[in-house]
Amino acid sequence: MFSSTMKGGNRWRKLAERALEQLVKNASDRTVHCGYTMNTDVVTVVDPATLAAQLRESAGATRASGVSNGVVVTLSDLAEVVEKSVREGLGSEWPVGEASVLEWLRSHLAGQLRVGGTGAQVADNVSALGFASIVNAPVASYRQLALLTPSSRLWLATPHGLVLRSSLRSTPDDEPPVYHFILEFLASARVAERLILPYDPDGRVLRICDVFIEATLVPMSPPPRLVISGFNAPVLESERLMAFIERVRGHLLRYRSVHPGAIVHLELGKSHRASIRRRVLEEVVPLVDSLGMNIEEAVQLVRDLDIDHLAASLQENPALVCREVRSALGVSRLNIHSPAWTISALALEGPIGEEMERLALTAGTLLAAARASLGRSPTLEELHSIAVPIPVHPDGVAFVETLEQRGWEDMGVVAIPARQVLHPKLTVGLGDAFTAGIVAVI
């Protein structure tokens, strides 16, 4: 229906309208289960040059020590990471390994509190659209849970039982939540970038509430969707992490038996530990249907799979990379998303068809664009009034046209352009909003 001969924004507007129709249809009877991690983001806007200078001054003669291992250990490490991000024009995530760095951030930077973690953010986004959702909330902190949109269809699976978000009442906090600092800054005149600095050396976020497990194992029709994430959270491999992965595996096996028609989506995330990534590939990926990641995570993945030659092909031939990696992992669907475009490879006999995938990708880009524009999770009405008029990214259009000319769409590859938000109010959680759009449609 959407051939390459259709020109201009009309093609993408029609596709957007169909995606919104699908969201309305699905919202009435689909439940989305969201795990596994939840934290509290401290979001602050900084001038990167000023911040780097402050860090250098505070660090004194201390040299960078931990960055080579992917962990921020000193203030010099953090200054180096800030300067690297500005120099390369890319946002990234760097775990903090020492409490002293976190204390410096707390004492020097004020910020706005937001709920963090892919599971929590997906739940927030789909519930704002009117979907029923259940989110793993292992820390019963009112300060944290109250950051979620007060939806009447969002259930919080806490150690004290299921709590409807719209009925949440203030209670004494059992323990403080895990805080992640997120630094937003302008890397250029047009693109807002950010640094994510999680601090959780003991892996406190690696918990699955018993209430969440039991709530997600209730048979229902139509089959639910399960989105999982959080394996990129820990800094170090530990017994707690291994136990967490084993519990996830057990949950997925039971989930499959109770919901044979469900689709399980894993948002990969970037981990700085090869041993953790290998364990996830061995224990978790074989039990999922759908796998999502950004370009940086895709490069890391192809290297983990010992197909390094594909990493160099990612920019020039991402369709090939998508197909090869999907086939190597045996998943039904693999998606890579970027600021300008998003592309998926599908198993020809899989549960997701090309037309539905096209609608899912469109819904994801609309949610991400609306969140960037509004600074929060959008409603269905706001998707129509705010996101649909946002122009598609010209580089993304060129990317899609090139793929179509090469005939990739006849080989189970689907791609669409992203929406271009030139001056976003928020850059945090856009990938999670995109993921919410995917699981709400497929």
Q: Could you characterize what this model shows?
A:
The structure is a single chain. With 442 residues, the protein is of the alpha/beta class. The protein has 2 domains: 9-40 and 116-176 and 200-441, Ribokinase (UDP-N-acetylmuramoyl-L-alanine:D-glutamate ligase, 3-Layer(aba) Sandwich); 42-113, no CATH class. It is built from 15 helices and 15 strands. It has helices at residues 9-27, 48-59, 75-88, 99-108, 118-128, 142-145, 210-216, 239-258, 274-283, 295-304, 318-329, 354-374, 380-387, 394-405, 430-441; strands at 31-34, 39-45, 92-93, 112-116, 132-136, 154-158, 161-164, 179-186, 192-198, 225-228, 263-267, 290-294, 333-337, 341-346, 413-417. The strands form 2 sheets. A 10-stranded mixed beta sheet has the order 7-6-5-1-10-11-12-13-14-15, sandwiched between helices. A 5-stranded mixed beta sheet has the order 3-9-8-2-4. Helix 1 (9-27) packs across helix 12 (354-374), helix 2 (48-59) packs antiparallel against helix 3 (75-88) and helix 12 runs antiparallel to helix 15 (430-441). The two termini are 19 Å apart. 51% of the residues are buried. Residues 1-6 have low confidence and may be disordered.
Strand order within the widest sheet? Answer: 7-6-5-1-10-11-12-13-14-15
CATH fold naming of the largest domain: UDP-N-acetylmuramoyl-L-alanine:D-glutamate ligase
What's the CATH superfamily of the largest domain, by name?
Answer: Ribokinase
Can you count the beta strands? 15
Order of helices and strands: HEEHHEHEHEHEEEEHEHEHEHHEEHHHEH
CATH architecture of the largest domain: 3-Layer(aba) Sandwich
The number of domains is 2
Helix content: 40-55%
Shape estimate: globular
The helix/strand class is alpha/beta
**Contiguous uncertain segments of 5+ residues:** 1-6
Query: How far do the termini sit from each other?
Result: 19 Å
